[in-house]
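Task: complex structure prediction.
Instruction: return structure tokens for all chains below.
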Amino acid sequence: MRKNIVAGNWKMNTTLQEGVALAKEVNEALKDATPKCDVIICVPFTHLASINGEINQEKLGLGAENCADHKNGAYTGEVSASMVASTGAKYVILGHSERRQYYGETSDTLREKIALAFENGLTPIFCIGEVLEERENETHFDVVKKQIEDALFHLSAEEFGKIILAYEPVWAIGTGKTATDDQAQEMHAFIRGVIADKYGKEVADNTSILYGGSCKPSNAAALFAKPDVDGGLIGGASLDCASFMGIVNAF
Ligand code: PGA
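Output:
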């Protein structure tokens, strides 16, 4: 059966020293804990190797927030999937709405990134979600379905089974405006249906679908109680150990 997962997305926050300190704090908090979910932190590229040296990945998984859409070569400033894997990281967030919005990521580039993540043994945490206008004009289901179809439906069932999905309504990210637990459940159930139509019920039932967007300790329990919400992708609230652990312990 699918796993419950709480994953932090630190975005472009913390210096190396601050990031290592935060990772150590979370690692320490998990040391003697038995959370009812897997716990992951996705951190800036510059922090990966150092943090890998400080945490026990049996208890706290480590991931990057992006990787390049090329294997290697003349792509100044890019960081490849093999570089990410060589730090000891096991996960990579792909298709985050901030990457789509500010850095022009499309389903074409995302298909390349997913292939390279797989080649290097990384588990993609793949983000989908509509913008406010799409929700208001009620195209949100179509938009999310198309994001999944375009970027993922060329995969075999076995490959698809390795992906963690994160539904993040863009209007809820960093805005303090969380989707209600019913809105999250409605979309997560829809997504699971889309997966079932393509890959069958077993693959759909085994896919972890995380909710992201202003998730915090005060609303996490209600969201996670929904049958199709398998955890969260946490931005702002993952930058403080107590609030991140508050969300982990919401399960
Ligand atoms: P937020 O970000 O929790 O700060 O809204 C979530 C995300 O973008 O992954």
